[in-house]
Amino acid sequence: MQTYPAVVAFHRTLNHDVHHIGFKPLTEVDIKPGQYLEVCLDNGWCVPYSVGNDPTQSQLLELYVQHLPEGDANIRVIEATQEGAEVTLAANGKIFYTPEWDKVPLVLLVAGCGISQARSFIEARLASGSAQPVYLCWGGGDERELFPLEQLTQWSKDKRFMADLTLDRPSDEWTFAKGTVVDTALKGLTWMTPKERSRAKVVVTGSPNMVDATRARLAEAGFAADNLLADQDYYQVRTL
User: Fold this and answer.
1) For the FAD-binding FR-type domain, which residue ranges apply (predicted)?
2) Residues 54-105: tens digit of each pLDDT
3) pLDDT class for 225, splitting at 50, 70, 90?
4) Inter-residue contact 26 to 6 (CB < 8 Å)
5) Fewest Cβ atoms closer than 10 Å to its Cβ: which of 27, 41, 64, 176?
6) pLDDT-based confidence at 139, cuts 50/70/90?
7) Distance between CA 48 and CA 25 in Å, rounded?
8) Helices 208-220 and 181-188: crossing angle, nearest 10°?
């Protein structure tokens, strides 16, 4: 596994438990949009997070890291990635954006910090020149599970991009959709023809239960099972 030295360029807190971290690699890197960016710790653990931007368009590599009280690994990552710290990174993951994806609609169904990988894919698609549409459905349980994402405003100016935000248990002040990600997405994707559904690349990011339930519903709705992608099918924990 090839590793890359990097320096933490910024470390920001976006809400009560999400950290936005940017790394400046000290050598040339080969990381593709949507891949895992692993943060390798002193104890040998390499902790995976989906890269949160298109690394081919930026000199920085970005992550969105959620602080989970029961997760020792992510707590160590947050502690080890304060601004100015030197870290070791690695690239991994079999799901990433390729030129073949330019030919078909792209559907991204994500929960919480799953927006990290989705942002990487969206940036790659909109920069590619593809005329094919890209649809994002981003959801969570309540408002605390989403966080500000300034790129949404810019993406929305592109006619190829469509998005729905949804919550299972929103407050009275919530002005977007209510319901699960897959329920909201199926309502938002009624414009897709059967042929478009069978050709579309779909990436689902969330808990294993959410991913499995979502893919089952999508298959019933005419999306091709072979095109329903999720990192949980491929990832294996590793150490240096």
Assistant:
1) 1-99
2) 999 999 999 999 998 777 888 999 999 999 999 999 998 889 999 999 999 9
3) very high
4) yes
5) 27
6) very high
7) 17
8) 30
In the chain, CATH 2.40.30.10 covers 3-92
Q: What is the CATH number that goes with domain 99-233?
A: 3.40.50.80
pLDDT (tens digit per residue) in 100-121 = 999 999 999 999 999 999 999 9
With vertex at residue 62, the alpha carbon angle to CA 60 and CA 66, rounded to the nearest 5 degrees, is 160
- Does the predicted model carry a pTM greater than 0.90? yes
Query: CATH classification of 3-92 is 1.20.190.50, yes or no?
Result: no
| Token pair for 151 | 């790129």
Alpha carbon distance, N-terminus to C-terminus of the chain: 8
Q: How many CB atoms lie within 10 A of CB 178?
A: 13
Question: Coil, strand or helix: which one is 113?
Answer: helix
What CA–CA distances, in Å, run from 139 to 67, 82, 113, 204, 229? 18, 28, 10, 12, 18
Selection from 205, 203, 32 nearest residue 124 by Cα: 32
Q: Which residue has the tokens 């298959």?
A: 219
Residues of the chain with CATH 3.40.50.80: 99-233
